[in-house]
Amino acid sequence: MVIKYFSWIKEHIGESEELIDIPSDITNVDQLINYLNEKDSKYNLLFEKKELIKIAVNKTYSSFDTKVSNSDEIAFFPPVTGG
């Protein structure tokens, strides 16, 4: 799985992209977030208010219950603002 991070999320995580293999029992975005939180404490602050984070699975806006697998690309980014 490729996970991409954008804007202040990238700054907080310390990288713009990472490759991970998730266990087979991780089947949706919410479970992925829980897995990341357990994997490393650097994710805890990021996902503390996860409802503020926007998600894309395979370049399509998605929700926390969207199915995921190791062949997917997941992107996490802050809400987009305009001016």
- Backbone structural class: alpha+beta
> How far is it from the N-terminal to the C-terminal residue, by CA?
34 Å
Radius of gyration: 12 Å
Could you spell the SSE succession in H and E letters? EHEHHEEE
- Rounded mean pLDDT score: 93
Largest sheet: spatial strand order: 2-1-5-3-4
In percent terms, what proportion of residues is strand? 15-25%
Low-confidence stretches: none
In one word, what is the shape? globular
Task: Please estimate the helix content.
Answer: 25-40%
> Major beta sheet, specifics?
5 strands, mixed
**Overall number of strands:** 5
How large is the count of helical segments?
3
Structure commentary:
The protein is an alpha+beta fold and 83 residues long. The chain has a domain at 26-65. The chain has three helices and five strands; from the N terminus they run βαβααβββ. A five-stranded mixed sheet has the order 2-1-5-3-4. It is globular and about 30 Å long.
